[in-house]
């Protein structure tokens, strides 16, 4: 069972992330990405999918042409956990 982050832990975690915003009604974090075209967006999604599978932790996400919206929360914990923060960091690392 993954534990939800406390308010202090969440604040500290968000300080280490760039561009991720809290979605209070979901106890989640969300970030939007924009690419040159659909292929760039889908290639990014492919790489994120491999990260997610390796982490056994999966995003809630959407794609419209060159844009990708990613929301991270932990279903097992009904809220934000360290797994979400770790995946967010790994996703950001894909873009350098
Ligand atoms: N992804 N976001 C998210 N939250 C989860 O709780 C979760 C997951 N991916 C897989 C997973 N849990 C595992 O527990 C599976 O065995 C269900």
From TrEMBL:
Catalytic activity: (4aS,6R)-4a-hydroxy-L-erythro-5,6,7,8-tetrahydrobiopterin = (6R)-L-erythro-6,7-dihydrobiopterin + H2O
EC number: 4.2.1.96
Signal peptide annotation: none
EC class name: lyase
UniProt name for this protein: Putative pterin-4-alpha-carbinolamine dehydratase
Gene Ontology molecular-function annotations: 4-alpha-hydroxytetrahydrobiopterin dehydratase activity
PANTHER family registered for this protein in UniProt: PTERIN-4-ALPHA-CARBINOLAMINE DEHYDRATASE (PTHR12599:SF0)
One BP term from GO: tetrahydrobiopterin biosynthetic process
Gene3D superfamilies per record: Transcriptional coactivator/pterin dehydratase (3.30.1360.20)
InterPro entries according to UniProt: PCD_sf, Pterin_deHydtase
